Write a sequence for this structure.
């Protein structure tokens, strides 16, 4: 198992590499995005659906009092 010191050194090394190779980093990020695009879209749709459901539940519990106060 790696120590915290080793993990920190690895993070710093990766950060230096990204700063030294911005074009390669950009290409890598784009390739990764395209490879996992569908999975990310599904996750975002699920997140948004859950957020809307929570908002509806909150509105029902609060009885719309927040909306009346704002008018």
């Amino acid at each position: 198992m790696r120590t915290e010191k080793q993990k920190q050194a690895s993070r710093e090394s990766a950060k230096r590499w990204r700063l030294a190779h911005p074009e390669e980093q950009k290409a890598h990020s784009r390739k990764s995005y395209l490879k996992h695009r569908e999975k990310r879209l599904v996750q975002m749709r699920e997140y948004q659906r859950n957020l809307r459901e929570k908002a509806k539940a909150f509105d029902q519990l609060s009885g719309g009092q927040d909306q009346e106060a704002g008018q």
